[in-house]
Amino acid sequence: MNLLAHGVGSRTDLPIPLGLALYGAGAAILISFAALLLFWRAPKLGGPGSGRPLPESVQRVADSPAVRRILQALALALSLVVLAAAAAGPPETRLNLAPWALYVTFWVGLVPASLLLGPVWRAVNPLRLLHAVLSLVVRTAPGAGRLPALGLWPASVSLLVFLWFELVYPDRAEPATVAAFLIAYAVAHTALALWFGAGWFAQGDGFEVYSTLVARLSPWGRRDDGRLVLRNPLTNAIATPETPGLAAVVVVLLGSTAFDGITRTVWWQTGPGSANDSFSGTVGLVVSIALVAALYLLGTRLSGRLAGQPLAIQPRRYAATVIPIALGYTIAHYFSLLLLDGQTTWILASNPFGTPGTDLFGTYGNVVDLTAVSPDTIAYVQVGGVIAGHVAGVTLAHERALLSERRARASDQLPLVVVMVLFTIGGLGLLFGF
After folding, report:
1. How far apart are CA 14 and CA 52, in angstroms?
2. How many structural domains compose the chain?
3. How do strand 52-53 and strand 228-230 relate by DSSP bridges?
4. pLDDT at res. 7
5. Is 420 among the domain residues?
6. What pLDDT shows up at residue 277?
7. Domain that holds residue 210
8. CA-CA distance, 330 to 69, in Å (whole number)?
9. Between the N and C ends of the chain, which has fewer C-beta atoms within 10 Å?
């Protein structure tokens, strides 16, 4: 069993010809762009002050420090159980709860949780509780004044480290390795939070920043005055602050997902990846992210040049438009992983330490139901996720152009749209063995 050979459909799972899917996906992006130019001539998504307010009772619960501390304590307790299982549970990956809980249930499950509930990890992050306790002893944060200048660059590094660990490191699925990573991650980020202050988590904790970005496409948002509101997810996305490092975060996410697709191709498995070593994987991951970054920078800066905008701010200005694209790729790659391999987490949770006769929830004897989702459904979700993400991205890019320019021209936006079409075709090709 290969835990990290994510359960994604192959080319044979696609119920329509691959060429038709690629041409159709590219055409969908171009047609949606043309429709936007014809019928979307002024900003329509509303500003950060828009939205329908939620009841006061919901606001009080969501903002209650006591509720957050309780949730963080529960998350900390669960994290300790996973860590204990990694250290003292069965040594075999297939029988140990920790790798499945980290890579499948937590990392992949963070996406639907954030889409449904908003920036959920910001509320339940157990490291915030650890930091709050330690802050009673260490009362000063010497580096707090420098944190705003860092933007989201620390989060991009944090995510890159985790993604390298998940996608490249050969022994990533070993329980002892998972335990070491969890301890190292907790120690590093708690120490950095003690230095920079509690604001570190919102800028440096890769998991929290990832959850917050995904939540930008949830229906829950906050107005400028802090009021919780229900509104169009695209309005939430377009209201994403143009923080330094935001573009780096989305490029890391997009490039790493592309590399994950590359590693499942015959070319990679019989060529660069045949040695299954850290060197080839690291080079592949870096090159994938660099290629995505180069295309994104080229598209945004060409669009900025045509529109007469300062080139330096273009990547940051359009970074929010890449969020739905990265989300679409994530759903396409990991939808089946969560529904199929994710069952293993709940099976092993019934006996986290492999103790004979233990079956806490009555699930330990269960087997993974591979019929829970059909190959056709997986393929449709993959194609639909990629196309929907890019259509949403084109829509946000058009809205951003309208907000930036009084008279946005089609030629101004065309370079970025072309890049999005290339991302679409490349993403689908990697998904289905192109």
Report:
1. 40
2. 1
3. antiparallel
4. 33
5. yes
6. 80
7. 11-431
8. 30
9. N
